[in-house]
């Protein structure tokens, strides 16, 4: 059944990309789910373990700091950051996903909003001390991914940080089907967007099958 759900995701993504609307399928998928989280194949209904491990290792606290969660899905990562003291804004391109978050966490301190990474509110520019993105870049086609880099970077305030988590591969490896693992070359334009590399972790997550991950931390000088 889970394989069928993944096939549906890939089918929708392909259809909408062919129509010239490479991000339109997210709303369709969330709407089709009709509240069944099993249809959202990336939704663990818990904080991303790769984020959680980093937060624990770095002993991150967020009191007095603003955080932005990009492509927040069903909200678990945003809630974890709020639990750690951050003032959190979380957005997704899907209004249905945002409404779902609000139903799941009716008393949350997180501000959940429907927004497009590539057309985000101007008042978010350099407005956040910590920006978190997981698994969004890896589902964008290369042209949109190139536009997403400066879009992500502009959210980060001076001395603020951006953490990205994604699947990883070598340049000569076939990316296969969605989600598309990134290479180190996909990160070379972040310095031009005003961020310097703090740490680039390349490791295997022990899941159902070992999955290569990149966990990349940037900071604005």
UniProtKB/TrEMBL annotation:
Organism, as annotated: Ktedonospora formicarum
An example molecular function term from Gene Ontology annotations: methyltransferase activity
Pfam families documented for this protein: Methyltransf_25 (PF13649)
Gene3D superfamilies per UniProt: Vaccinia Virus protein VP39 (3.40.50.150)
Entries under InterPro entries matching the protein: Methyltransf_25, SAM-dependent_MTases_sf
Keyword S-adenosyl-L-methionine: yes
Residues covered by the Methyltransferase domain: 68-160
One Gene Ontology biological process: methylation
Name of this protein: Methyltransferase type 12
Oxidoreductase among keywords: no
Keywords from the named record: Methyltransferase, S-adenosyl-L-methionine, Transferase
